[in-house]
């Protein structure tokens, strides 16, 4: 990916967040440092709506299952639930005791989970009723570290994963609609701290291995990405329907015009038993560019890009050393073969039967 398919211009300051609408094709939300959220229709490449209710930088955005509600956290210490098409704030909470950083909708439970910092500067999570943000349902302190806590929720298994920036561990909890609402299970531990995490969509998981969640961990020190699989241990090799219910698939449920017209629709579900290898009909094709070359002294500079860092220089050095070693071995083998042929030729000349 070297060229943008589409460039969007609308914010007056830099963009900090982008989120796809969960059920509608080609609807994108962007939040900038101008305190505004723009809703883009990528079919026309233009913003079609603007949400202008924030008074400071927006820290996080999350949608409910059908995309009819948007929740945000903001640097003004407020948690908001917004109707995205009109921009109307349905619920708002002043989070002075629990300074919120990240928020996630918990599927169809009508619950929100936030991560933040308590008044004693300890990391904390809080559970909220989306229809009443006057006070959190529960608050739970995690630890005294300073890194941001990133929440990841799996609606299929009702599992919540908490990963802290700079931490090496990932905690997981089970979420329920009844008290105590939040049940700690265990945690994954690693000595390597994480700078950030990405998630594989459900249809990309290894169902045969009972993989229910997969992270892609950006390791701070090593400059690499490490996959981390969450696997349910099962002895049977058959398809496990209890951990793989029908899940949102790759096909959109709405067109941009339908959603902008006021229609809400749940995601189009798919079964991982049959459809997890099925490719999506929605395909974006990058523009084809002709291969260019810049040749100087017989060397293509685009094919032979000089190293920019010490690590790249070392990798190039070791690759060249391996190539030199391989060429020397190949030369030695050809030299031995040449001597064998010279000896055979000499024997032919010295053999009287050939005269």
From TrEMBL:
<feature type="repeat" description="WD">
    <location>
        <begin position="51"/>
        <end position="92"/>
    </location>
</feature>
<dbReference type="InterPro" id="IPR015505">
    <property type="entry name" value="Coronin"/>
</dbReference>
<keyword id="KW-0677">Repeat</keyword>
<dbReference type="InterPro" id="IPR001680">
    <property type="entry name" value="WD40_rpt"/>
</dbReference>
<protein>
    <recommendedName>
        <fullName>Coronin</fullName>
    </recommendedName>
</protein>
<dbReference type="GO" id="GO:0051015">
    <property type="term" value="F:actin filament binding"/>
</dbReference>
<keyword id="KW-0853">WD repeat</keyword>
<feature type="repeat" description="WD">
    <location>
        <begin position="8"/>
        <end position="50"/>
    </location>
</feature>
<dbReference type="InterPro" id="IPR015943">
    <property type="entry name" value="WD40/YVTN_repeat-like_dom_sf"/>
</dbReference>
<keyword id="KW-0175">Coiled coil</keyword>
<dbReference type="InterPro" id="IPR019775">
    <property type="entry name" value="WD40_repeat_CS"/>
</dbReference>
<dbReference type="InterPro" id="IPR036322">
    <property type="entry name" value="WD40_repeat_dom_sf"/>
</dbReference>
<dbReference type="Pfam" id="PF16300">
    <property type="entry name" value="WD40_4"/>
</dbReference>
<feature type="coiled-coil region">
    <location>
        <begin position="324"/>
        <end position="351"/>
    </location>
</feature>
<comment type="similarity">
    <text>Belongs to the WD repeat coronin family.</text>
</comment>
<dbReference type="Pfam" id="PF00400">
    <property type="entry name" value="WD40"/>
</dbReference>
């Amino acid at each position: 990916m070297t060229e943008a398919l589409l460039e969007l211009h609308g914010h007056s300051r830099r963009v900090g967040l982008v989120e796809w609408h969960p059920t509608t094709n080609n609807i994108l939300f962007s939040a900038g440092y101008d305190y505004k959220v723009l809703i883009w229709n990528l079919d026309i490449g233009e913003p079609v709506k603007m949400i202008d209710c924030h008074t400071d930088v927006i820290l996080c955005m999350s949608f409910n299952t059908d995309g009819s509600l948007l929740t945000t956290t903001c640097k003004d210490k407020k948690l908001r639930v917004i109707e995205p098409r009109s921009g109307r704030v349905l619920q708002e909470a002043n989070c002075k005791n629990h300074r919120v950083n990240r928020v996630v909708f918990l599927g169809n439970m009508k619950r929100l989970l936030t991560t933040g910092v308590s008044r004693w500067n300890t990391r904390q999570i809080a559970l909220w009723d989306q229809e009443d943000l006057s006070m959190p349902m529960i608050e739970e302190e995690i630890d005294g570290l300073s890194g941001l806590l990133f929440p990841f929720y799996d609606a299929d298994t009702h599992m919540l994963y908490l990963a802290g920036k700079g931490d090496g561990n990932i905690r997981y909890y089970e979420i329920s609609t009844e008290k105590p609402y939040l049940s700690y299970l265990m945690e994954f531990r690693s000595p390597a701290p994480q700078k950030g995490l990405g998630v594989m969509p459900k249809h990309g998981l290894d169902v045969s291995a009972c993989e229910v969640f997969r992270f892609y961990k950006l390791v701070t020190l090593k400059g690499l990405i490490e996959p981390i699989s969450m696997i349910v241990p099962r002895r049977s090799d058959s398809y496990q329907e209890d951990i793989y219910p029908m899940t949102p698939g790759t096909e959109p449920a709405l067109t941009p015009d339908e959603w902008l017209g006021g229609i809400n629709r749940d995601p189009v579900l798919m079964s991982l038993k049959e459809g997890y290898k099925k490719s999506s009909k929605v395909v974006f094709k990058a523009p084809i560019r002709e291969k260019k070359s810049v040749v100087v002294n017989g060397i293509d500079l685009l094919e032979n890009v000089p190293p920019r860092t010490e690590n790249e220089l070392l990798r190039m050095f070791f690759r060249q050393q391996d190539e030199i070693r391989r060429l020397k071995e190949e030369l030695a083998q050809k030299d031995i073969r040449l001597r064998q042929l010279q000896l055979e030729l000499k024997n032919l000349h010295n053999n009287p039967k050939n005269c």
